[in-house]
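[Meeting: bench + compute handoff]

Bench side (C.D.) handed over the final construct sequence. Compute side (W.E.) agreed to return the predicted structure before the next meeting so the bench team could plan truncations. Sequence as handed over:
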Amino acid sequence: MDDRYGLARRVTLPGPLRLDGGATLGAIDIAYETYGEIAADGGNAILICHALTGDQHVASAHPRTGKPGWWTRLVGPGKPIDPARHFVICSNVLGSCMGSTGPASVDPSTGQPWGMRFPVITIRDMVRAQALLLDHLGVARLLAVVGGSMGGMQALSWPATFPDRVGAAVVIASTARHSAQNIAFHEVGRQAIMADPNWQGGDYHRGDPPSAGLAVARMAAHITYLSEAGLTEKFGRKLQARDAKGFGFDADFQVESYLRHQGLSFVDRFDANSYLYITRALDYFDLAEEHGGLLANAFRTTAARFCLVSFDTDWLYPTADSRTIVHALNAAGRAVSFVELSSPYGHDAFLLDSPELNRVVDGFLRGGR
């Protein structure tokens, strides 16, 4: 592949970075990838923001798993976000474990991994770190910021935090705040991790990680990414490699085996403490609360255009959440397009093959040029 279609980098950015929780980080590492070349006028830069367990490898193979980039359906030659036309940036969020500073990173004051001594972060803190990266890259203004799920929260936070630096925001399968149900599912996952004897209060980096707890957390979360119709279509009540029920607690059903596989494969690539911190950032996210309790206030000072997309079977961030954002954008006088797409795949539909989504994003991005 041509180098312009995926340059992996890691940079140390000078601090201080002041966080919403009151703490301050010194120099931070940000791992990122870029695709394409920046235009002479700097007007073709698109920032892609990843979801909870995502990473910077948006359109190139993951170095650990060997799997293709997580959004190659949307990003790549001939796709709506095309390195031949756009300068594409995707960074690993602050607090994660794919090269950016997080709880698995070394605390310079102790020489040991931060663990649970790492300060609690927010979605807005992640966006501030991305802004430091753009400063480093010489990108003063973005043509667009694009993201799904947690990436959509970042895409919403960008024009609210840096109103003059964003021309457009594409927000897919996302929300302006976490509901009580969202928080509840995350808390089950966090408690599974912290109940694992290997967690050791977060100081497990010299021993065995809390793999069992993290696997259960992933299993619980993965259920929320799917839909009942999708699970029924794919698995139903079919048994796993057997002709009759085993009357025990092995994986009798195919859906059980599928979830166990999801959990076990996840622990090979993700840090348990990062999972705690990022889910906490998601739970704290409330864009209205950050702007005086009125969501429209978040958008009053930006001139950015917005495109919102939801999926009809997404019960994690249902269409009603997107409509709430649209109403706030209307109240703020912002230009906004909105569409609900039909898919049997639930929340994960934004990552799967969706020609309709590609048409929407392509049309919106071309409409602003």
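W.E. noted at the follow-up: The radius of gyration is 20 Å. C.D. will use this when planning the next construct.
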